[in-house]
Design brief:
The complex is a heterodimer of chains A (517) and B (615). Chain A is mainly alpha-helical and 517 residues long. Chain A is built from 21 helices and two strands. Chain B folds into two domains: 520 residues, no CATH class; 55 residues, no CATH class. In chain B, strands 4-3-2-5 form a four-stranded antiparallel sheet, covered by helices on one side. A three-stranded antiparallel sheet of chain B has the order 1-6-7. In chain B, helix 9 runs parallel beside helix 12, helix 10 runs antiparallel to helix 11 and helix 17 runs antiparallel to helix 20. The longest helix of chain B has 36 residues. Classes of the chains: A mainly alpha (517), B alpha+beta (615).
């Protein structure tokens, strides 16, 4: 296997990560030198810096030849899939910085921005990783940062009962996230080391695949390795049955962090999951001539098909009974992961190779923006009311119609109602499933989206129809929130009406994974 | 794909959307401006809809797949299709040759409209539906999705109906004081969604608008409906309608891929208007249906069911999936609750237009895309429609609530529409199309009358109402007119609609369709059509009974002025009168001059009948 040894191209490829590292240091530096009155600048520097880096990442050229795409000794693959996910996670990182500026507990803490940027570096590298060592290092960079952020809220000196409750919840969620996460990381690591051995000592994903089938091993141990890896990734994307941490961590973490966990960490994990499964356990058409009869892809297709059904169904059913908005979104995001898994399952058997991957990529992009919009609106609501309960959102459309509209757009997008982008995202996923002769899975998916519509509509109803005693207390939207929310809302609608903006790139990325021209 | 843009249909669709945007940007206190903008937006759409209705070119749309038009002919020999050519001889005689000019059969034809049959080869026709006023712009080229609008005879009538119901709905809602800005904005979005479904000729676009209409409809009912029932009914209605449509969506996706792989394997058959093998263009999938792309045996053979084809498996899901919205038994349950809970204007749109939208979509995406599925399944679906007709009428007869009577009468009347489709002959299907229009206007009129009475009486309990014709003569007359239409009185639109349906059922399934049917069940069930029509008449008698009962209870008898003081205090607005007049006018005009509608609808229905006979 050849790799790209052109030093300039190699450096350009990781430019976003390098710049983010510099930005992280700059934030620490600013914290030391700025007087306390100007602390607010830190958030702007971090946020605008990240957005600029995202814009840069969008224009980094991706070579069209596979061997040219493998860089840094084959540890990353700089292709269109990587580009889509990297731009998305960095953008989300930037938006999360702005969201952090609206949270009193995070606003003036430069550590928050620094750790967030480091987590984004991990997520960004994870999206491009094509080597098991890079994969694991990137995953842990992201995860460990997120464990810290999740438990970030500290007890103030003279806490009110409310603050005490939030601090306790945050600490609990940090510890829970850490324990679950490190436990499943161990599984992942064990699985990766087995694959390393079975493949004959390869670490590059694209060498492990042929190595596994070429080694004439019995099937059982390889399936065990597959299962172990699936545990690790299943935790990251919060697939059932590894979802138990999700509601608690979502509820306990400070909301900007929840947003980041629910979006960037999930998106990057789906990116690497797509790449990993196709490379390490490739379907027949991706295997070299002569050894196509031993394809392990059917195993993970079946495994993830079952996981998709369970994840969608359990996520949606449990969401039905939630009264706390953050927990509702936690279960909803479990269900969303289930829909995305449909696309993943459809990758291997699709008649139009690459459509499944394109659907996953598109869905993750729109999901990222939708959830950011949702949590952004929630932060404003919580700041004003101190509550995260659905019932307390009564009359929100009277208190601030734009905030209610933003939440409505986000909820409709999650529910898959046009003109929000979620409609097209779901459409692509179900389309990919039908194409892959998994019509039954598409049927399960659409029925689930009906169940989901119920609880999304209930929230919208509470905002628009129900009345509360505080109807006439307006909720202000401060700078820079208005820009962030307006931009994400417009983006969600825009991608729903003109999905071709991303779909074309996503389709190319999907075709790239199959080495199609 | 070539871009075409006539613009008029886009304007019909765009006017309510633009109106909604403007209204949302207005100040909350600008109540009167909001109302006028809403009336203006729906008025523009109505005017343009009338323009389309009256300038629709009847000669140009008919019978797309006959020898007259530029249909493509193929010969099927041992499973493969070869192109064939038509030659006219002496301007009359027609000879069919293969691509080398060799005659396929000696039979020369004198009758141009008939399709010849040959002994040695099978002739396959394929041609698009000739939509008019087409707007077509590529949208998502990768997936074969385009922004495409167009009308045929049936949708031209439906667009006009939507215009009537939405314009009248805005006028009726003039006195809404509870957040009119939001109400009218959502109402206009709902209207735009409905227009979009009727106008879209790209299936993705059609689903886009279908789902787009769901959310404003939900909020309108949940937010402005009858307080006691609205939350329950709005959610029930939304979920019912969506379940049906999303399953139909999966079915359509299956067809899309079947057509795509069919055309990929036979690239020479790809229609000239399509951008590639995979396309959501309706005509693309329609021509694939004519060429037999969905009739290849062996679908789901892993389940151990022999002889299943895509068309035969998916037809009931698509037809009944959309049939849910048309109130087809046993999925009609959402409709009375939904109509009762909804505010008046939304009931009008809902019963008047949305139920037709379900019937229309069932016809277009069920019957027209899967003719073989229709031949297999419609003969039993007619019994569901029969239950609708009779049971709906019985239940309507037993109601105490004024609005529930009308709600169940819709279930009953919509059963006749499904029944008309199930006849699979031109008479019955034309009647179904007429019934869609007639019932749409009639039920909109009914609901506006109910709304006006309820607004002033604050009760819909039939026994406690009485004598309203003395105080509200216009409403009383309009209601009685609607009642006559509902009973099928000659000279009114109800008669010209229901009579052909019953005749159509009596005639039964045409012999050619029976010949083409692939399962023996079709022929056996066809024998029962006569019993169906005899039972259905019972429903019509019951209709007369409940209409007369309601009229007597509400409008005649003693009026209690102390109990209902508001009737005197709040006279009808001029807007209310205009709305009633507008709707009544169409009921009479269609009854007296049915040709203005029948010509158009036959225009759309004859290709369907031909399709069922020949493809």
């Amino acid at each position: 296997m050849d790799i790209n040894t052109n030093l300039v191209e190699n450096f350009i490829a990781i430019m976003p990560e390098v710049l983010m590292a510099v930005l992280a240091l700059a934030v620490v530096y600013l914290d030391l030198y700025l007087p306390p009155t100007q602390r607010r600048t830190i958030g702007y520097v971090a946020g605008i810096g990240m957005l600029a880096i995202a814009a840069l990442a969008l224009f980094i050229p991706t070579p069209s030849d596979f061997n040219e795409q493998l860089m840094w000794g084959g540890t990353i693959r700089n292709d269109d899939l990587a580009k889509i996910f990297r731009v998305t996670v960095i953008l989300i990182g930037g938006l999360t910085c702005f969201m952090g500026m609206g949270d009193n507990r995070l606003r003036y803490k430069s550590e928050f921005y620094t750790i967030l940027i480091i987590a984004t570096i991990g997520a960004s590298l994870l999206s491009a990783a094509s080597d098991i060592i890079m994969l694991f290092v990137a995953l842990e960079t992201m995860s460990i940062s997120l464990y810290i952020l999740s438990g970030f809220v500290r007890l103030p000196q003279f806490p009110t009962p409310e603050e005490k409750r939030f601090a306790n919840l945050s600490a609990e969620s940090g510890v829970k996230y850490f324990l679950f996460g490190s436990f499943t990381s161990a599984f992942l690591l064990y699985g990766l080391s087995l694959l390393y051995g079975f493949s004959g000592g390869y670490t590059n994903l694209y060498e492990i695949g042929p190595g596994l089938v070429g080694g004439e091993h019995p099937t059982a141990p390889i399936i065990v390795a597959l299962g172990l890896v699936a545990v690790g990734f299943g935790f990251k994307v919060s697939a059932v049955p590894f979802h138990f941490w999700t509601p608690d961590v979502y509820e306990g973490s400070p909301t900007p962090v929840t947003s980041f966990i629910s979006v960037a960490s999930k998106a990057a994990s789906f990116a690497v999951l797509t790449r990993f499964m196709l490379a390490v356990f490739p379907p027949e058409q991706l295997l070299p001539e002569g050894i196509q009869s031993i394809s392990y892809s059917e195993w993970w297709v079946q495994l993830f098909a079952i996981a998709a059904v369970l994840t969608m169904t359990i996520g949606n059913l449990l969401a039905l009974v939630q009264t706390n908005f953050k927990r509702l979104i936690a279960y909803s995001s479990i269900a969303q992961a289930g829909y995305t898994l449909i696309g993943l399952v459809a990758i291997a058997t699709g008649n139009n190779a690459g459509d499944g991957a394109a659907a996953v990529a598109f869905y993750m992009v729109i999901y990222a923006f939708t959830n950011t919009l949702l949590f952004g609106c929630l932060i404003l609501f919580t700041n004003q009311t101190g509550s995260e309960m659905i019932a307390d959102m009564a009359g929100l459309s009277r208190r601030n119609p734009w905030l209610a509209l933003g939440l409505t757009v986000a909820l409709l997008s999650l529910a898959g109602i046009p003109p929000a982008a979620g409609f097209f995202g779901k459409f692509l996923l179900f389309r990919a499933a039908v194409d892959a002769n998994l019509t039954w899975l598409a049927v399960v998916g659409v029925l689930n989206s009906i169940v989901a519509l119920y609880y999304y509509l209930v929230v919208i109803k509470v905002m628009y129809v129900d009345r509360s005693a505080e109807d006439n207390l307006p909720i202000p939207i401060a700078v820079p929130y208005n820009f962030v929310l307006a931009a994400t809302a417009v983006f969600v609608i825009l991608l729903g009406v003109l999905p071709a903006l991303v779909v074309n790139l996503a389709t190319e990325a999907g075709a790239d994974l199959f080495f199609l021209p | 794909m070539e871009t075409q843009f006539a613009g008029i249909l886009t304007a019909i669709l765009g006017a309510p959307i633009v109106g909604a945007m403007i209204i949302l940007l207005l100040d909350e206190k600008a109540r009167d401006q909001v109302r006028w903008i809403a009336a203006f937006a729906t008025g523009i759409s109505l005017a343009l809809g009338l323009l389309v209705f009256f300038t629709y070119n009847i000669d140009d749309g008919q019978d797309a797949a006959s020898l007259h038009n530029d249909a493509n002919l193929y010969v099927r020999e041992s499973g493969t299709l070869r192109p064939a050519l038509v030659e006219e001889v002496n301007g009359e005689l027609v000879r069919i040759t293969d691509e080398n000019g060799l005659p396929l059969d000696r039979a020369d034809l004198t009758e141009l409209t008939e399709r010849p049959s040959f002994n040695n080869v099978e002739i396959v026709y394929s041609g698009p539906i000739k939509f008019q006023f087409v707007d077509r712009i590529p949208w998502i080229g990768e997936l074969g999705i385009s922004y495409q609008l167009g009308v045929d005879g049936l949708t031209a009538a439906m667009v006009m109906l939507t215009g009537l119901a939405s314009f009248a709905g805005v006028l009726i809602s003039w006195s809404i004081e509870e957040r009119p800005r939001e109400f009218f904005a959502f109402f206009l979005l709902l209207t735009a969604g409905v227009y979009g479904v009727f106008l879209a000729t790209d299936i993705f676009l059609m689903f886009f608008f279908y789902e787009l209409a769901i959310f404003p409809m939900y909020l309108l009912i949940a937010g402005w409906g009858w307080v006691e029932l609205r939350e329950y009914a709005s959610m029930k209605l939304t979920l019912y309608i969506l379940i049906g449509s999303v399953i139909a969506l999966v079915g359509v996706l299956v067809l899309y891929f079947a057509a795509g792989s069919f055309f990929r394997d036979n690239p020479e058959l790809i229609p000239a208007t399509s951008s590639g093998a995979y396309s959501f263009d309706f005509n693309h999938l329609y021509q694939a249906a004519q060429l037999g792309a969905y009739d290849q045996a062996g679908y789901l053979s892993s389940l151990g069911i022999d002889g299943l084809t895509i068309a035969r498996f998916w037809f009931p899901f698509v037809f009944i999936g959309f049939g849910v919205l048309a109130g087809l038994f046993p999925f009609h349950n959402w409709s009375p609750d939904g109509h009762v809970a909804a505010p008046t204007a939304v009931s009008m749109i809902h019963a008047g237009v949305l139920m037709k939208l379900g019937a229309y979509a069932a016809l277009r995406f069920g019957v027209q895309l899967m003719p073989d599925g229709a031949r297999t399944h419609l003969p039993w679906i007619i019994f569901l429609a029969l239950v609708n007709v009779v049971m709906g009428a019985f239940i309507a007869f037993r109601q105490r609530d004024f609005k529930y009577v009308i709600g169940f009468s819709s279930v009953s009347h919509m059963g006749l529409v499904s029944m008309g489709f199930a006849t699979m002959n031109v008479t019955g299907m034309t009647g179904a199309g007429l019934q869609m229009f007639s019932h749409g206007v009639m039920t909109a009129l009914f609901f506006s009358c109910v709304g006006m009475v309820y607004d002033r009486a604050h009760t819909r309990d039939l026994p406690s109402l009485g004598g309203f014709i003395k105080k509200m003569p216009i409403v009383g007359v309009a209601f009685i007119l609607g009642g006559f239409v509902s009973m099928g009185m000659p000279g009114l639109s109800g008669f010209v609609a229901e009579f052909p349906i019953l005749i159509g059922v009596w005639k039964g399934i045409p012999a050619e369709v029976l010949d083409k049917a692939t399962t023996p069940l079709t022929g056996e069930l066809a024998n029962y059509y006569a019993y169906v029509v005899m039972t259905a008449v019972l429903g019509i008698i019951l209709t007369a009974a409940y209409v007369l009962r309601v009229t007597a209870q509400v409008f005649f008898g003693e009026f209690d002025a102390e109990k209902y003081p508001e009737v005197e205090q709040r006279p009808l607005l001029i807007q209310d009168r205009v709305a009633l007049l507008l709707l009544s006018f169409w009921l009479i005009i269609v009854g007296v001059q049915p040709q203005i509608l029948t010509n158009l609808i036959e225009n759309a229905v004859i290709p369907v009948a031909d399709l069922l006979k020949y493809s």
